[in-house]
Amino acid sequence: MHATTVGEPLVRARGLTKTYGDFTAVRGIDVEVRPGEAFGFLGPNGAGKSSAMRMIGAVSPVSAGELRILGLDPASDGPAIRARLGVCPQEDSLDMEITVRENLTVYGRYFGLSRVECRERADELLDFVQLTDKAGDSVEDLSGGMKRRLTIARSLINRPELLLLDEPTTGLDPQARHLVWERLFRLKQQGVTLVLTTHYMDEAEQLCDRLVVMDNGVIVAEGSPLELIAAHSTREVTELRFGVGEHEAVASKVSDLAQRVEILPDRLLLYTDEGEAAAIAVHERGLRPVAVLVRRSTLEDVFLRLTGRTLVD
Amino acid sequence: MELVVRQLDYWVTTYRRTWKGSGVSSFVMPVLFLSAMGIGLGGYVDDSSGPRVLAGVSYLAFIAPGLLATTAMQTAVLESSFAVFGKFKWNKVYSSMTATPLRVVDVLNGNLLYVGFRLATTCAVFLLVLAAFGVAGSVVGALGALLSAVLVGLACTTPVFGYSAWIKTDSSFAVLFRLGLIPMFLFSGAFFPVEQMPDTVEWLAYLTPVWHGVELCRDFTLGTASWWPGVGHVAYLLVWVVVGWLWARKTFERRLVGASS
Hints:
The structure holds 2 protein chains of 2 kinds.
Chain A: E1 11-20, E2 23-33, E3 38-42, H1 49-56, E4 64-69, H2 74-82, E5 85-88, H3 100-110, H4 115-128, H5 144-155, E6 162-166, H6 174-189, E7 193-198, H7 201-207, E8 210-215, E9 218-223, H8 225-232, E10 236-241, H9 247-254, E11 260-263, E12 268-272, H10 275-284, E13 291-296, H11 299-307
Parallel strand pairs in A: 3-7, 3-8, 5-6, 6-7
Antiparallel strand pairs in A: 1-2, 1-4, 8-9, 10-12, 10-13, 11-12
Helix pairs in contact in A: 3-4, 5-6, 8-11
Chain B: H1 2-5, H2 8-47, H3 50-53, H4 59-80, H5 82-89, H6 93-98, H7 104-132, H8 139-166, H9 173-187, H10 199-207, H11 209-222, H12 227-257
Helix pairs in contact in B: 2-4, 2-7, 4-7, 4-8, 4-11, 7-8, 8-11, 8-12, 11-12
């Protein structure tokens, strides 16, 4: 359908850098996104994810390094690249003065689609994001989750080869988040390549085939969620909650029970492949935590290990 | 140009939601102003020293083109201030546009064309009202006044676009309105000849685009237009349009793409 040959990366960045005056937001990252995959940038706020996304969206110029999107150079082929991208920004940029459906039809025109095509696709997409009943309503009356779904629908109006989603579920309630995830999962199954940023580890685990963990403008790890967990954490984690201020003292008494112990303000994390066994051993030492939880390692643990900080403060 | 045309449906869609309100006000405002100032106040002016200062022209005929030019200015500022700032800051419409094949300059020009349309329709209605009051001049004169009003409107539009993209908070508009809009409305020769004022004020008035617009409109409706100073007024207004556009392009780029080093 397009000039991109099979297997050629849709995004290829080498030493990609973004500076704003004296501040360097992205410090020379290497990224490759392959056709059909869901690729994630995971990291806390201010890690440089959104800056990277704006460069990949062919909006923000590259400060240094090399970037190719769909095989094209954003510095010279910005409009041609953007014609084939879908962009779902972090903050909804819907037009409040026009209706839900008009937000889609008007947007399709920017891509040079005919009015008939715009109307057909708008109706299809409203159906896809389950907003058909709201077609004639003002955008102002939509809930946060509906606005987000409408923004996703709008980003699909040009049938993009690459869909960029910046923090797709930030600020949504759990039910709305699941609805968005489910729609994105369907797109992924249809073969749309997704690139998303998130600071939610559960979102990254749900959606991403492969991801990079970013911190302070650099990539600190790369792989599939399972690979990252296997490489940077243990199979299980035993969480122990004691009284406020007791965690430091308790940590020294249990440090031999796990491969690694993390002390957080509200709990202790024992990294071990046998979580239950560790919990029992803690009990046998006469320690009585207020709460005990044995769970599998997540990307949150990977991030904590790599940066010494939690993702969501 | 094709990328600018792609925005037509957007502007038509938003205009259709507001045209009734703006249409009524662009008809009612001139009727109110011309009745109160042209006829009410004009009655006193014409009975006192008015005919001497205004070279025999009735006060109504004198202020009619002035009101036309200042209405163009007000329409221009209305469509270029909060309306533009909000598209950066509040609903981020411009960012959503530049995520598509549209470039920043296309988005800027698309919006400017819309303001040009608003100026043309508002000023055309205004001239119809002037015609009803018998002060629109000849057909050619009225057309000349319409073009002049659109030109002075654009001369106010492009710099305000630049300003709206440049400021950080909407409270900065208070400065623009108090130091720019209101003094220009009062002291640009719309209501009295600027020669009536002290020399400094008179010269400040000559620097404003609105004074040149008022003069152009008045020469057309009174039938006193001549090549000189007509061409000079047009050229001066075009400088405002072009310099304003260059500045707006710069501030739009900075705002939407970000200052890159």
